[in-house]
Known about the structure:
Layout: H1 8-20, H2 24-34, H3 47-53, H4 58-73, H5 76-110, E1 114-119, E2 122-127, E3 136-140, E4 148-160, H6 162-165, E5 171-172, E6 191-192, E7 197-209, H7 215-220, H8 232-261, H9 266-280, H10 285-302, E8 305-307, H11 311-315, E9 321-325, E10 336-342, E11 345-348, H12 358-368, E12 373-374, E13 380-381, H13 384-395, H14 400-406, E14 409-416, E15 421-429, E16 432-439, H15 441-447, E17 448-453, E18 456-458, H16 462-474, E19 477-487, H17 496-499, E20 503-512, H18 517-528, E21 532-536, H19 541-551, E22 559-562, H20 563-568, H21 571-577, E23 581-585, H22 591-601, E24 606-610, H23 616-621, E25 624-628, H24 634-639, E26 642-644, H25 649-686, H26 698-709, H27 711-715, H28 742-766, H29 772-790, H30 798-801, H31 807-825, H32 830-833, H33 840-873
Parallel strand pairs: 9-21, 9-24, 17-20, 21-23, 22-23, 24-25, 25-26
Antiparallel strand pairs: 1-2, 1-3, 3-7, 4-5, 4-6, 4-7, 8-26, 10-11, 10-20, 12-13, 14-15, 15-16, 16-19, 17-18, 19-20
Helix pairs in contact: 4-5, 4-9, 5-10, 5-26, 8-9, 8-10, 9-26, 10-25, 12-13, 16-19, 18-25, 21-22, 25-26, 25-28, 25-29, 26-29, 28-29, 28-33, 29-31, 29-33
Adenosine-5'-triphosphate binds at residues 325-327, 383, 385-386, 415, 417, 420-422, 438-440, 480, 537-539.
Amino acid sequence: MNWHCKSINEILKTLNASQQGLSTEDAGDRLLRYGPNKLKEIKKRTVLQMMLDQFKDFMIIVLIAAAVVSGVIGEPKDTIAILVIVILNAVIGFIQEYRAEKAIEALKMMAAQTATVIRDGQPTSISAAEIVPGDTVLLEAGNIVPADIRLIEVSHLKIDEASLTGESVPVEKHTNPLHDKWMPLGDRKNMAYKGTIASYGRAKGIVVLTGMNTEFGKIATLLQEQVEVKTPLQKRLAKFGQRLAIAILAICAIVFGVGFIRGEPPLLMFLTSISLAVAAIPEALPAVVTISLALGAKKMVKQNALIRKLPAVETLGSVTYICSDKTGTLTQNKMEVQEIYVSGQLIKSADISKQQCPTDNLLLAMALNNDATRQKNGTYIGDPTEIALYAISEEKNFKKETLLNDYPRVAEIPFDSERKCMTTFHKRSEKEFISFTKGAIEVLLEKSTNELTTHGKSDIDKDKVYSMSEAMAQRGLRILGFAMRKWNALPENMTADNVETNLTFLGFVGMMDPPRKEAGEAVALCKSAGVTPVMITGDHPITAKSIAKALDILGSNHEILTGKKLEKLSIKAFEKKVEDISIYARVAPEQKLKIIKALQNQGQFVAMTGDGVNDAPALKSADIGIAMGITGTDVSKEAADMILLDDNFATIVNAVREGRRIFDNIRKFIKYTMTSNAGEILTIFLAPFFGLPIPLLPIHILWINLVTDGLPGLALTAEPAEKKIMEIPPRHPQESIFAHNLGVDIIWVGLLMGGASIFAQAWGLKTGHAPWQTMVFTVLCLSQMGNVLALRSEKESIFSLGLLSNIPLLGAFLLTFVLQMATIYVPFLRPIFKTQPLSVSELIICLLLSSIVFCGVEIVKWIRRKKRDTDKSS
Ligand code: ATP
């Protein structure tokens, strides 16, 4: 349907219908007819493709080929066993990848854009994908336009169309239906296009085109290719993996050469070397990182932190500064008017009705200069500040809806956080208009020339009024001033500069927005974790300080900086003091960029919150941009790495804790896999140097790799956080994977594991124990189980953690043990695994040798704990 060509009658019909919007039923029919309002996505991998991808690795292909060749020449039973193990390995890989992909998809759905439409006569928030042609959409600053919309009511709407036309200056819109049918895109003033951003004002419009039919859809094919973002750890692991693979291939070549010289069958040696390469090359590590991050992100949603960009999960643990908005994040955003100032007096809100005249004008201003609305069911819609003012004026019999009949709103200059005020115009008669302005107290005082008192208009003592507001702010109240002006006609030039001047000051209100209780605890946790909390607010410095004190944000040697002072500081001068400032007050959103830059230049890793339309650049340039789920605009959410579903500061700190836990567990997984691989390689590589035959067969190597790397390794990612995880400083984002002894541990634990296995082989051969190979097989497999148990904590002993604190890992441990015993003792499995039953004494020897690694790791942890304690006390 081409709405651009509609006749004026049809458009007028639609305008009338727009009051009611579509009915749910009609919208449902249209959704079926026109399809969802979505851009086509690039085809996702099918389940089959995902499964086949598991066999893409070159070494796996070589292994399969070698196994088939050896089966044709030798025993096909061996080949089948090897192939089954390779398939099982692929199945585990596939299940994990599938779960991760589903988790990422679910996160994407949760972060999907919503829009406000009128359905069945009521403003309703729906998923943008459900919008259909004919829907009436309400737009406001901060919205990403959800479809191509013909505007029918506009109030100062400006749209940033850079995504469509490349033009970075926002375009002013109006509602002339016939104006721009044949205009080029950028000149069509009564259309709002999908994907562009409402940067100022408000509007109402009818959807004309959705999905791929929109102007954005036409060019969208170019934008579909999303580049997969690799996390810093994945990049480093991929690079390291390549180098390691070369080293392992060299070792495998030596293993093959040595075996060949010793007269072992060449095909068996080839298969052994390839199996070793498959088992030891950690090609799956980057994928494991993605899986851990995706599953971690899935868990974080339950704690109200919605991750939009996966790398953020990994980097959260490196955050050193959390710069947070005050209102709603550190405070409850449940505003309540407690006191008012009018005509030189302070009045408690409960006593307002007893007062006379001037309060009436103040209450009138509160009711009329107000964007909140009340629904039929009695609940309010709007900003909490507006709702608080609506509620108090209504309580004192100044009901907005009724008053609007006598004082209809005919124009407005919307609020913006840079100007810190808003103005509405109301018509009394053809020759009588009143404007009400409300906003930050100092802004209103500056714009006022007199004051309305009980004796009528009189001079204003600005210093006195301001100091009374400061006294109120000291008690943590949020101050908002009110003023008015009478007009004979609506001003032609409706700009803030022209209109918000020569005002008559009416008074101010003090609103309580109590700090969140949990924010105080979170601030304390931040400090113990070496993370500095910083408050950034558009509010008054005194109010900000009072709230910061209640939450203990303001450190003893820390300062408050106002937006005005910040503006004057050069970046160099600011950098010198940025680490000593914990409150920024009366700042504009644009100034957040300067704060981030200065902190980053000082080597800090910054998380920054934001909710408004102007916060997007700061959210993008912060190391972790955090948007508000409840109060945040589409634009801020789109720019953010993470969305707080409950707008709560404590959620950020929980997310940092979770990020640290996830990263720790990835490190533990890397350590576990690499030590296990080192153990396997060293066993096979070193045995010939002690004059021993090749200790293991290919099937053994592949089995050990399957059962140890599979379930127990993955269960490590379920490990709860280390007890003192929030008592240590943040990890440096550039820190090597092998920091904190990881590299050293891999080498010595690998040597210990290899040593125990070779000892089992040497002892078995020397003492004439026929099942020596089964012993090596068992020792190597169970050593890895001991290793995974001890590795659960990098610092604490497993005994203080308790075996039951990671049930999946305990389950994986027991299952692996049972499976290993089955390969030895279940008769029909023995020929497949080429094992022989172990006697009780042989089994005991194996168990003792296998526990060496566990004991070794626990002892080293104990020594390190002791050393740390002595270092601390000295
Ligand atoms: P924060 O920056 O902590 O999230 P904030 O609401 O104080 O909270 P802004 O939204 O930038 O920050 O507002 C800046 C100032 O503008 C406020 O302190 C207040 O004085 C004034 N103000 C806020 N909301 C309104 C409003 N709805 N109408 C008029 N003035 C407002």
